[in-house]
Specification:
This protein is 37% helix and 13% strand. By secondary structure, the protein is of the alpha/beta class. The protein folds into two domains: 234 residues, 3-Layer(aba) Sandwich (Aspartate Aminotransferase, domain 2), CATH 3.40.640; 127 residues, Aspartate Aminotransferase, domain 1 (Alpha-Beta Complex), CATH 3.90.1150.10. The longest helix has 24 residues. The chain is globular, with a radius of gyration of 21 Å. The protein binds pyridoxal-5'-phosphate. Pyridoxal-5'-phosphate binds next to helix 3 and helix 4.
Length: 383
């Protein structure tokens, strides 16, 4: 018998309950611009827990990536190697500084950049490699860092999906020269909008503070290191209000609980859909042995575009919202004429066939069973 109808959205931002308490506390300090009480608490939390050398909260991951592009001195003529299967911000930050993006295809069984394809794309103009750990599953970082060292390239980790995930025993975001995280409401821990820049190479620390403070040495001034503050470099306003950090801190205090629940949901989908994968109708994410799973996302790979779209429509008719993801950026209206024309078959396949299932803290066992029932039903009727 068909289960009773439920409405299951794709994402629902989770609130731990302390967010508004901490916001009030921040407001009462009367220091609600950036670098206040909670901004410090959040940065220290990340530095302590993950051993990041230096953390600067930013207004978004997009802004952290723009800071990274400025810090590595991206200029017109530079080439940046990046996956085609990613969000716009991973590459737009570098395009804003005049760079050319050299897209690289995904691995065959994983949307991450195919590290074995990178070396042939390197030219004397290459400045950096952007790596995106898709769904929080690490790219092949040893191989990537060796390549970067050999050719003296910077590595920027777009770690937007990657909070609390690991490459072997190294936290993601601690490996590249710079890393950018997102606390957008669709990620594991959130502040509505928000992000952070992680600086793992000391050369960038001082300048990063300046760029984040509109090109001024305001941070050094408030620490008493300089006796007046002024315009010393280029920059912008990348510093979030302490109110945003207050919200984020409530989330960080509950990070372990959030991660535990997301992993349970991930494992439940995996167990209950395994038989469909076994029969070859769908594929699951492949987790390389060096990669941890932070349960940012549960996705399946359908056999083709038509079947994926029919599954989306079928689930929607049952009030379940499963969604596709990136559209290969080499084919985007903005970049297709600038792309050098190489084909990206794996990225194209993920564009056409990848489907993300609802994933959020408050999904109940009954919700999950409802989603799983209808996926089973779809494949029962379509094979
Ligand atoms: C969410 C996301 C971003 C952008 O994050 P914002 O904080 O919204 O700017 C960048 N890259 C990837 C891979 C993302 O998923």
């Amino acid at each position: 018998m068909e289960p009773e109808k439920r409405h299951i959205g794709f994402n629902k931002p989770y609130l731990t309950g302390k967010e508004t308490d901490y916001i009030l506390e921040s407001v009462k300090t009367r220091k609600i611009s950036g670098d206040g009480l909670f901004t410090k608490k959040c940065s220290e939390y990340f530095e302590r827990r993950y051993g990041f050398k230096k953390v600067l909260l930013t207004t978004s991951c997009t802004d952290a990536l723009e800071m990274a592009a400025i810090l590595i001195e991206t200029k017109p003529g530079d080439e940046i190697i990046a996956p085609a299967y990613t969000f716009v911000s991973s590459v737009n930050a570098f395009v804003l500084r005049g760079a050319k993006i050299v897209f690289c295809d995904s691995e065959k069984d994983n949307p991450n950049i195919d590290v074995n394809e990178i070396e042939k794309l390197i030219t004397p103009k290459t400045k950096a490699i952007v790596v995106v750990h898709y769904a929080g599953i690490s790219a092949d970082m040893d191989k990537l860092m060796k390549l970067a060292e050999k050719y003296r390239l910077f590595v920027v980790e777009d770690a937007a999906h990657s909070i609390d995930s690991y490459y072997n025993d190294k936290p993601l975001g601690s490996i590249g020269h710079l890393a950018a995280f997102s606390f957008h409401e669709t990620k594991n821990v959130i502040s509505g909008e928000g992000g952070m820049l992680v600086i793992n190479d000391d050369r960038f620390s001082k300048r990063a503070e300046i760029i984040r403070e509109k090109g001024t040495n305001r941070s050094a001034f408030f620490r008493g290191e300089v006796d007046k503050y002024g315009w010393v470099d280029i920059g912008s306003s990348f510093l979030p209000s302490d109110i945003i950090a207050a919200f984020l801190y409530a989330q960080l205090e509950n990070l372990d609980d959030i991660q535990k629940r997301r992993r349970e949901i991930w494992d439940y989908y995996y167990e209950k859909l395994k038989h469909i994968e076994k029969s070859g109708l769908i594929k699951f994410p492949v987790l390389p042995e060096y990669a941890a799973n932070n349960a940012h996302m549960f996705y399946i790979i359908c056999r083709n575009l038509d079947e994926r779209n029919r599954l989306i429509e079928f689930l929607k008719s049952k009030s379940v919202y499963a969604v596709f993801h990136y559209l290969s950026l080499d084919k985007s209206p903005y970049y297709r004429d600038k792309h050098d024309g190489r084909s990206m078959p794996n990225s194209d396949r993920f564009t056409d066939c990848l489907l993300r299932l609802p994933m959020y803290y408050e999904l109940s066992r009954e919700d999950l069973d409802y989603v799983i029932y209808h996926i089973n039903k779809f494949y029962g009727e379509n094979t």
